[in-house]
Amino acid sequence: MIAVDSRRPCERASNARRALDFLESFENTTFDGFRHVDKDACTPSAESNRLFDVVEWVSRQLRVELIGLENLPAGRAVLVANHAFGWDVLFAMSAIRAKTGRTVWALGEHVWWKIPVLRRLAMAFGTVDGTQENTDRLLSHDELVLVMPGGLRESLKPRELRYRLLWGHRYGFVRAAVRNRAPIVPVASIGADEVFDLVGNAFTRGSRWLRGTGIPIPLTSRLLPIPHFVRMKFMIGEPIPPPDQACEANDVTVHRLRREAEGALHELFEHELASRAGIRID
Questions:
Q1: Which of 56, 81, 95, 114 could be cross-linked to 66 through a Cys-Cys bond (beta carbons 3.0 to 4.6 Å apart)?
Q2: What's the pTM value of the predicted model, to 2 decimals?
Q3: Where are the beta strands (DSSP E) in 191-253?
Q4: Under DSSP, is residue 219 helix (H, G, I), strand (E, B) or coil?
Q5: How do residues 203-236 score in pLDDT, each as one tens digit?
Q6: CA Rg, the chain, in Å?
Q7: Residues facing 190 on adjacent strands
Q8: Residue 53: how many CB atoms within 10 A of its CB?
């Protein structure tokens, strides 16, 4: 059974504020060599090549597949992906980088930049702070921008919600695509949702066990978090073109484009999961 968060909205907001205050106490720490301008740098760091070489080696050992590379536009694009547990999307970013020579810039949650060492690692892997300014700057230079609208909540969802998109009211990536005349390209991560059998609501558990922080605590169905060996596959779908220039980025257009992006991802999920079961979908 999935735990339901029964707290009042004001209580949830208070716990979230305490979590941010807790992390902000580390924000000005500089022992990891991080500078605040780094989160908006939008330029590859010195460590990027070495780290992506490691990711590429691990990818070969795990036999990770990338399908649909031909669907990547030559110019700017907003890549939208489901968020599975961990940084599995690094395999797709690394494969695109190796096969095309292009950097995929991931929009990261604001909280990453408050955590020492982790923020330095995120920066090295091509992650920037997920602000409108950074998104517009990258797209104006015809870069590939990756967004996972489900964020941390989707990545820590219980096993009952595997391959479900928990995007809530997040429409910013669609507005960015319309504003910058960029196509939206669905990228489906298959397999990473099955690495761990997560159970319950990690956010409710975190509020209950770590009162005053609001930090989520994921748990697996096993006593020890032993991962399942699952073949990971990334499927790049056909681009969804932006609306005509005469069309404004109104709510109707934005909602329609997001539904198209969600539908495209679900089609990729269904095709691959049905194929696993030996069922052909024409």
A1: 95
A2: 0.82
A3: 198-199, 219-220, 233-236
A4: strand
A5: 888 888 887 666 788 999 988 888 888 999 999 9
A6: 19
A7: 233
A8: 12
